[in-house]
């Protein structure tokens, strides 16, 4: 019944707009907007969600520009209805709330009535948040009575009764059922007669009147078979099955439950969802291409082949020595730069000389950090992979202290390398904030999803609360914002067990086109002592760390503080031991509707690969070949490995592959040039760069060469297989 109501709302939009056109003379621009909204509604009725969303975007842009609150409300409502139809209920709720803001400005009670009704439908019958849904239904009743819409009053009371009955509050729901039974002949129709009989059956089943309950359930099924509204028929079978089960008639209960499943499967139209999901992925990929960082590429670093592993202990010692060498060299360079800067004040000539030396040292330091990080990631990939292989192939080593120490050191070293790279970029002023359009809700939820595994480790939950008054699209650097939120939330999850981390986002004030957004990251974890609160933002500081715990490198909060400095913002902290922690900061973003041309459609896709996946790995490092091949085959994929780009071109002439994993730095011909030659052959197979380079260093050239995505070694195998599934499904 809910999906039918969404379509009926679309028809209401068409009729209401047609009436408005007759009643008043509008400009050409208003007529054009009306045609667009009518067309979007028709496409929604036909289940052509891709076209409906596309037309709705155009109509929304024009109506906002024309300051037409009524048309803006219709456009947002149509977008919300599309998302409801494809089961994206959180997005539907978001856009219905946007529609309600403009409906309030237009003072149109009919629109408010319909929007509240649809929100009630979603919360009651999809989100199962019945009290919240009933609250929206009560608002619907208020507007229905105000505009004297008797039919809507009848339907709303039916829904309220149904919601109360679903949660077992039959006493609260019965007055609504009594109203329905009294006015059924006057306001009811063939489409809801099955639902009315079903509700009576549920009530008398609760009262213990089995004879009446059976009669109403059978009438509901009979009426449902004669009606085009098959969703009510399915629910009638479901409720009748529950009633029969309680009576002990298990055979009849099973028959009705099977009928419910059969009708539900017929109603579920996967084809229209797939069509909408593909459209959403294409829009998402286009948006990502526009927002990729533009840094100059510094490469020419040559992969060094790691010597054959002798023993686990020797390998552990080598990694420890490299770590100490890296830290010593970095601190030595920093001390040298400080001494050089102190000498700059002596003379003007010395100033020029020292400045040149400092710039040269900075370049050398950046090159050194980039080279060392690349060289460390390559053997780390082998260390992590071989360690996992040892655990899989030699179960007796699962409790080995040496193996545990090796895994700990590898993870610690990788985290340290990534954090030092980030600090190095900020200190060298190599980070420039981007000004691109983004949806703040999408970014926050992306952070939430990426940290879900970490949350589960400590049995935590993550909640997101976003102010509906925040504009749908803002202009700013979404990547740096995500880094800040990611570091703060992950830090909160580490020091919280069996608790909750909440991300609050609120519009604080507006100054011209600048919208000041207040962020608050709140947890109920162990808290921070007052004497430690000043030093937690310093480099390499770790508070509350146990000897047996891995708490990271101590650079996360330092990175947050420095990134906020790029936004001309600061961070505040409120905490006490055993009372949780709250971090707060405010960032101004630009809101400019003229720059916002299209909506971001970020539909998450759950893709599974039914067929055997054939993977080609192009990698010259033999240890990395072994690790990658084992990882791929462990997921039941077929894997072929070649040593260089020319060998890849040769095998692609003979064999088809679903995906190509391409190393970048190889002898003879590198990964970029190999990809270009593959694309010149007309081969469209997705290519993923599997590299130890920092992503920002190679993104621009990778995109221009025809590479579809980049994964940095060492990588999370789950992330790799998710990217493979998405690329294969969209190819």
Automatic annotation (TrEMBL):
Catalytic activity field: ATP + protein L-histidine = ADP + protein N-phospho-L-histidine
Positions where 4-aspartylphosphate occurs in the chain: 663
Alphabetized UniProt keyword annotations: Coiled coil, Kinase, Membrane, Phosphoprotein, Transferase, Transmembrane, Transmembrane helix
Keyword Plastid: no
GO molecular function annotation: phosphorelay sensor kinase activity
Transmembrane annotation, as ranges: 312-331
Record-annotated Histidine kinase domain positions: 371-591
Designated name of the protein: histidine kinase
